[in-house]
Write a structure and sequence with these properties.
Number of domains: 1
CATH topology: Rossmann fold
CATH architecture: 3-Layer(aba) Sandwich
Shape: globular
CATH superfamily: P-loop containing nucleotide triphosphate hydrolases
Radius of gyration: 15 Å
Distance between the termini: 10 Å
Helix content: 40-55%
Strand order of the largest sheet: 2-3-4-1-5
Strand content: 15-25%
Number of helices: 6
Mean pLDDT: 89
C-alpha cells in the first residue's frame, strides 16, 4: 500500500468526506477492501444513470431499502444513515463518475448536499476523472458541494 492509499484510508477512518480525482476505480476499491470488515460500504456508478429519478431508484436498490418511498428523495438519501443506527459501524458511500452529477439538475444536487451534511455516521467518497469539473463542483463557492469534501488528486500518475 503506497502513501496515497494510506492517505485515503486515513481520511475515511477520520470521517472526512473526500473527492478523489482519478481515472481508475481500482485505487478507491483497493482502499475499500481494507475497510470492508469494519464498515458498511455502498458503491454507485453514476455513468449509466440518466436522471434524478433513476438515481433515486438505483440508490434505494443499493441500500436495499424496501420500506422507503421511492418518490421521496429526502427519505432515500437519508436512509443510509439509518442503516448505521445500533451498529458500531460507519457507512461509506462511494459515487463513481461524480463529475457527471450536473445532469441530474441543481435541485437534486442541493438536496443531496443538504441531506448528506446532516449525516454523522456516513462518509462520502466522490470519484471523478474530470479534474476541472470536480474542481467546479467542490471548489466553486456558488455550488452546493463547495467545501463539502477534501480534494485528493491522482492525475499526475495513476495507481
Amino acid at each position: 500500500m503506497n502513501s496515497e492509499h494510506v492517505r485515503l484510508k486515513i481520511y475515511i477512518e477520520l470521517g472526512q468526506h473526500i473527492a478523489v480525482m482519478t481515472k481508475s476505480h481500482d485505487f478507491v476499491d483497493d482502499v475499500l477492501s481494507q475497510l470492508k470488515n469494519e464498515n458498511l460500504i455502498f458503491k454507485i456508478d453514476l455513468a449509466n444513470i440518466n436522471s434524478a429519478s433513476e438515481l433515486a431508484i438505483e440508490y434505494a436498490k443499493l441500500l436495499s431499502c424496501d420500506g422507503v418511498d421511492k418518490d421521496d428523495i429526502n427519505e432515500i438519501f437519508g436512509a443510509v444513515e439509518q442503516l448505521t443506527v445500533g451498529k458500531n459501524m460507519k457507512a461509506i458511500v462511494v459515487f463513481y463518475n461524480f463529475d457527471t452529477i450536473c445532469r441530474f439538475g441543481l435541485d437534486t444536487i442541493k438536496k443531496m448536499r443538504s441531506i448528506f451534511q446532516t449525516h454523522k455516521n456516513t462518509v462520502y467518497v466522490f470519484v471523478g476523472s474530470q479534474a476541472l469539473v470536480m474542481d467546479t463542483i467542490f471548489l466553486n463557492k456558488d455550488n452546493a458541494f463547495f467545501n463539502f469534501a477534501s480534494i485528493m488528486r491522482l492525475v499526475s500518475r495513476e495507481i
